[in-house]
Amino acid sequence: MNKITLVLLILVLGITRINAQSDTYVLEEDIPYYETNVSNSDAYIKERCKLDVYYPKEAEGLATVVWFHGGGLESGEKHIPDGLKNKGVIVVTVNYRMHPKVKHPVYIEDAAAAVSWTFKNIAKYKGDPKKIFISGHSAGGYLASMVGLDKTYLEKFDIDTDEIAGLIPFSGHTITHFTIRKEMGIRGTQPIIDKFAPLFHVRKDAPSMLLITGNRELEMLGRYEENAYFYRMMKVVDHPDIELMELDGYGHNMVYPAVPLLLDFVKRKTVALVPK
């Protein structure tokens, strides 16, 4: 067999393998995550409060990554990030209502409703409710942190935040989000730590966390530093399982290189959940 034939054969086999793997996954789109009476009560809820579930047909008891898109709480659409497809995890990707049509804390309430839906329904998609990880980029990372740290949002749905297997915010605010500050008439360069800041809810018993940001010199203003401060305060209260990673060479748009770190974190924490 000559080299050209061998290369072509490898390429064909590779494409066949990729296609076969892709064919084992199903994407179920635009599932309302509020109860029907709530969805029907408001046109904007009915339009925006939907999620997609991407799951494999054959596997059982998989981990789930709930993904919230970025966009400053003002723009963006649900999507599956590059690198999260065909990786042996279920992905739940979420739309939520946005500024200026709504104001805080509606964004966080929607995120909590989507996480609650996941806990209550993921077994139908062969996922394990004990292996649910919450993630997202920028505004989505902020929402992941708020839902996982402020217990009040999930309590409304009879869900304990400590049942979350892990939080992996990508370049998310740990101070109060700049759009929320804008809604309160506070300029974007004035940092605030109130009940709408993940930093306000630092606690020892929070879920495992992996904080990822771009390089501190390339990131949005102060984004690495506020995550570093959050990390330090979690250490001060003796949180047992938090990591902080700064991606050199990348700025705020650091999703693609961060996804393998997310997957590694999910794998490590999932293994730890297996009874010995």
From TrEMBL:
Membrane recorded as keyword: no
GO molecular-function term, one example from the UniProt record: hydrolase activity
Highest rank taxon of the organism: Bacteria
Signal peptide region: 1-20
InterPro entries per record: AB_hydrolase_fold, BD-FAE-like_dom, GDXG_lipolytic_enzyme
Pfam families referenced in this protein's UniProt entry, alphabetically: BD-FAE
Domain (BD-FAE-like): residue spans on this chain: 51-153
Gene3D superfamilies per UniProt: alpha/beta hydrolase
Keyword flag Hydrolase: yes
Keywords on record: Hydrolase, Signal
SUPFAM superfamilies in the cross-refs: alpha/beta-Hydrolases (SSF53474)
Protein name, entry field: Carboxylesterase family protein
Organism: Kriegella aquimaris
